[in-house]
Write a structure and sequence with these properties.
With 370 residues, the chain is of the alpha/beta class. The chain is 38% helix and 13% strand. It has one domain (12-282, 313-361): TIM Barrel.
Amino acid sequence: MGDWEPPKENSLEALNHGMSFADGVEFDLRMDSDGELVIYHDEFVPGKGKLTERLIELLGTDELRKEGIVTLEDLFGNSDFSSNWQSGGKTVDIEIKEPHPKTKIRSVDHFASMMSKLDMMVEDLDVPDKSVIVSSFSPKIIPVAKSSGFKVPVTRLMPHIRSWGRFWRVKRAVAMPHFARTSVPKIANHLRNNQVPVMGMALEYIYGWPRWIGPSLPVGIQGRGLERFSKIRRGMGAFVWPAPLKAEKLLLGAGVSLVSDHMDPTVKVRPDGSPRWPRPASQPLDAEWTERLNSASPDEIGDTLNEAESSLPSWGEIEEERRFDIVVEQGKRFLWAGKEEDWKTDSRNGIPWGSPRIIGHRGAGGTHSS
């Protein structure tokens, strides 16, 4: 670890860092009392006043700006962020947050209004296909997206974590019964039936002892568990969090996309000593650079990574045949549904959802645990 100091989560600095350093970013979206979309995780701003006087949805944009909260318009209007996104290969995962019950705001109408505004803003930005997805812990997200004609793909995050509460451990405890009675096959089938291209879920569904709690045979990221997982997914994207560095290599090797808090550019190797390449999707390594990195000595890894960054093309710059080779290799390895020609056609519209990505959680990593 170096002396890198991560910028404040969900800030412009953090989001720009994650967008350039990794394959994209995840951030949290709320709507304030002025109808402005703002980027903020918690239900309320810090302070000692009454909770109802600090809830995001009950405060105006000017008040929130004084707290350092960024609007979505600020972010989309930032040339560094938008040009990175428009150039291809970067993914933006927007998590829509449900209002706190004390706001007395009807979530369905609130979500529909947010989606209407977001639809227009994304369309105006003209970003590549398969470069944005909207997620939420709320079970209402998919029905509202359907009824409102929302054009951006959505997914429901699992397990269900309530939209309010100050303590993350309490939220996790409340979510445990839902975790215990759901399973990866059930999640995948539900999402597939609703034409949802990505599953978003807690790491514990596929890694560690908690995956044995569920009602069906567990999946995993190695051996027979991975084979079951790949057959269940059939090319569906899988975004998981948290993404510990010690498991990163296995997760990517299983075709899993990571919502990661590890955005420190000074970290060049993982705990197992393997070199860490933070852009497997947006700037994929070829065979030559993979070999060079794997054969580099510990003292050489940093310089070799820097050289690869300046030498390798981004996804949008790669020749079509090379892109085809990448997706066909992944399709075979991860047991995607369909035929090679289907995968090639899909890749013309962006990186397939089943391709693994590293995405910066709240930009440059969350700076608190909730």
